[in-house]
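Following up on my earlier thread - several people asked me to post the actual chain instead of describing it. Fair enough. Here it is, all 274 residues.
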Amino acid sequence: MAANLMSRTPSTTTPTWHQFERKVEEVKPSKTDINYLVMDYLITNGYPAAANKFAVEANIQLRTDLETIQERVDIRTAIHSGNIQLAIEKINELNPQILDEDPSLHFALLRLQLVELIRNCTSTPDGDISPALEFATSQLAPRAPTNLQFLEDLERTLALLIYPNDNLSPSLAALLDPDLRKDIATQVNEAILQNQGSRKEARLRNLVKLRAFAENKAREAKKDIPDKLDIGLVGDSHGGSQPSNTNDSHNGSSHNGTGDTVMANSGDIDEYIM
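Reply from S.P.:
Thanks for posting it. Predicted structure:
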């Protein structure tokens, strides 16, 4: 009889926490620690207005110059808009050693610039391809022999001039995908941060990847953990509240009037934490 009564328990009954979840509750980080993680993320990923607003709301010190963040934002904006020449000029204004000491990144930017030229000249059936060929000859061809990967990348990029855009192989179509701009912008941001003596990646992203690694290892070892583990940044499944500063200000950097540029594929919604 008792068993039957238990089986009829309404689905709205508060679920019993797993032992693992109880242990997690016992070691929750402080609100201050979380706020500094969010601040570090906003600074590293380039959201100066959101960082400034968050510092005020969370009552913590903004330990960086907003102008230095904005310089990275301007470069990212140029790359995402396809203006690679402007991005290269801004990088060199910031510090020419960034590209001088990283030939692979410099070549990646130049190849992206070639992709943008090809995109423009092939947008119409009778487009002039000479600007793309001249750029490839003067800027990329001299660098290609120094690295086999450079040569392969250049040959694959020039193949875009041969095949119609609506009938490209996956490897060629990827060159015209906006995600390529995003990937290069991320590499540039990391290179600038490293040049300035900062970490290339926000602590929050590192922690999330470490957590995912630990969870996978625990499941491989058949440890007793819940079937699904929430990341914990958008509220938990037991009605727990998330620190208001963390939620409101981080979302504000992507969706409201903080003043930061919101761009498609710009990393505003981070695939590691959303």
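Residues 1-11, 234-256, 262-274 have pLDDT under 50 and may be disordered. That should answer part of your original question.
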